[in-house]
């Protein structure tokens, strides 16, 4: 789902500020800049992200995605469900490429968005795979399952359920309505959740979720 929310002033408006906050090296910054340019070019042909968010790429998109890595420092395999424009998955792949065994699965049901993702992965040589399909239909075993602006939590937990069953932990980027989403989801699902602050937006939150594996309540 494209993120059309106009950005507030963020803590990392430039590549230099982003590097200071994340420790990203020169190669990662070059790749992120190439990704930013591709995103802007393709966004003129299809709806990937809200145009108003592009000027704040480094805070609104790059930092928002990158902040997940320190929350799972030992995780090598990630699945980004409903990745859309590749957020957070492409950013994670760029920043994690120097780690042996690091790989990101970019899961997207819309074929035209997958063409964009394949272009990014190929041109940048990223440790990532693009999967054109429904998240819940794929047989992937990963350390972390993540998502950003994909679906309300009650639906997202359904998409992520197969990944939880195979041992994954969830790290989901959410907005200011996260408490209401959690309350709604607890009526249908059994899960443990920890609410973490967002580095990129005071209104945002990150949910660290571990499923009990008992499935939806009736």
UniProtKB/TrEMBL annotation:
<dbReference type="GO" id="GO:0070043">
    <property type="term" value="F:rRNA (guanine-N7-)-methyltransferase activity"/>
</dbReference>
<keyword id="KW-0949">S-adenosyl-L-methionine</keyword>
<comment type="function">
    <text>Specifically methylates the N7 position of guanine in position 527 of 16S rRNA.</text>
</comment>
<dbReference type="Pfam" id="PF02527">
    <property type="entry name" value="GidB"/>
</dbReference>
<keyword id="KW-0489">Methyltransferase</keyword>
<keyword id="KW-0698">rRNA processing</keyword>
<protein>
    <recommendedName>
        <fullName>Ribosomal RNA small subunit methyltransferase G</fullName>
        <ecNumber>2.1.1.170</ecNumber>
    </recommendedName>
</protein>
<feature type="binding site">
    <location>
        <position position="148"/>
    </location>
    <ligand>
        <name>S-adenosyl-L-methionine</name>
    </ligand>
</feature>
<dbReference type="InterPro" id="IPR003682">
    <property type="entry name" value="rRNA_ssu_MeTfrase_G"/>
</dbReference>
<comment type="similarity">
    <text>Belongs to the methyltransferase superfamily. RNA methyltransferase RsmG family.</text>
</comment>
<feature type="binding site">
    <location>
        <begin position="135"/>
        <end position="136"/>
    </location>
    <ligand>
        <name>S-adenosyl-L-methionine</name>
    </ligand>
</feature>
<keyword id="KW-0808">Transferase</keyword>
<feature type="binding site">
    <location>
        <position position="87"/>
    </location>
    <ligand>
        <name>S-adenosyl-L-methionine</name>
    </ligand>
</feature>
<dbReference type="InterPro" id="IPR029063">
    <property type="entry name" value="SAM-dependent_MTases_sf"/>
</dbReference>
<feature type="binding site">
    <location>
        <position position="82"/>
    </location>
    <ligand>
        <name>S-adenosyl-L-methionine</name>
    </ligand>
</feature>
<keyword id="KW-0963">Cytoplasm</keyword>
<dbReference type="GO" id="GO:0005829">
    <property type="term" value="C:cytosol"/>
</dbReference>
């Amino acid at each position: 789902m494209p993120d059309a929310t106009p950005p507030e002033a963020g803590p990392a408006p430039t590549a230099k500020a982003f590097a200071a906050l994340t420790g990203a090296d020169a190669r990662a910054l070059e790749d992120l800049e190439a990704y930013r340019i591709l995103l802007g070019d393709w966004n003129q042909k299809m709806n990937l992200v809200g145009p108003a968010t592009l000027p704040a790429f480094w805070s609104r998109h790059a930092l928002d995605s990158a902040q997940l890595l320190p929350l799972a420092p030992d995780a090598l395999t990630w699945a980004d469900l409903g990745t859309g424009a590749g957020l957070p998955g492409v950013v994670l792949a760029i920043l994690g490429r120097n780690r042996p065994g690091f790989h990101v699965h970019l899961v997207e049901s819309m074929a035209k968005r997958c063409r964009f993702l394949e272009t990014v992965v190929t041109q940048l040589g990223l440790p990532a795979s693009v999967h054109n399909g429904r998240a819940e239909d794929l047989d992937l075993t990963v350390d972390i399952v993540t998502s950003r602006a994909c679906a309300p939590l009650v639906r997202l937990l359904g998409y992520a359920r197969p990944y939880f069953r195979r041992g994954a932990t969830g790290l989901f980027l959410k907005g200011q309505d996260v408490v209401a989403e959690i309350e709604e989801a607890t009526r249908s699902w059994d899960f443990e959740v920890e609410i973490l602050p967002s580095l990129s937006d005071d209104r945002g939150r990150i949910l660290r979720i571990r499923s009990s594996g008992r499935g939806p309540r009736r």
